[in-house]
């Protein structure tokens, strides 16, 4: 199946040799998002909650550009520099995703790009 790059100005532009997302068939692979404001491409340096809200807004914009929504997510991976934020991440996730919730991995890491606290990627399965 051919690969189709997904791009929207409602999410931060790619800052390297990658696409915001790539679709193949009805599956969409969304690149990791950090808390960059797509209007300014500046980092949201607010609280952990504000960063996660920005990330889910960015992922939602990419999902919409692909013809879906966060409800189409079948798998997400969250990378956290502080696993003590795990419970807060769970609470925020419940605001942005509906049951049945996607499968998920949460990974503790020592550092992320631009010194952010969290990064999240997603895989979507769109209706054929």
In short:
The protein is 23% helix and 31% strand. The chain has helices spanning 48-65, 86-96; strands spanning 4-6, 21-24, 27-33, 36-37, 42-43, 73-80, 103-108, 118-125.
Description:
- The chain has two helices and eight strands.
- The protein has a six-stranded mixed β-sheet, covered by helices on one side. A two-stranded antiparallel ribbon has the order 4-5.
- The mean pLDDT is 96.
- The chain has a single domain (4-125), classed as RutC-like (60s Ribosomal Protein L30, Chain: A).
- Helix content is 23%, strand content 31%.
- With 128 residues, it is α+β, with helices and mostly antiparallel strands.
- The protein is globular, with a radius of gyration of 14 Å.
- Helix 1 (48-65) packs parallel to helix 2 (86-96).
């Amino acid at each position: 199946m051919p690969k189709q790059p997904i791009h929207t100005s409602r999410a931060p532009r790619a800052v390297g040799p990658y696409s915001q997302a790539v679709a193949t068939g009805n599956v969409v692979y969304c690149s990791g998002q950090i808390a960059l404001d797509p209007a300014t491409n500046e980092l949201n340096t607010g609280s952990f909650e504000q960063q996660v809200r920005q990330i889910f807004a960015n992922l939602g914009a990419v999902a919409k550009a692909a013809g879906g929504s966060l409800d189409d997510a079948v798998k997400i991976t969250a990378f956290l520099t502080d696993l003590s934020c795990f419970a807060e991440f769970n609470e925020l996730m419940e605001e942005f995703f509906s049951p049945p919730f996607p499968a998920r991995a949460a990974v503790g890491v020592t550092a992320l790009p631009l010194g952010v606290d969290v990064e999240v990627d997603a895989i979507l399965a769109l209706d054929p």
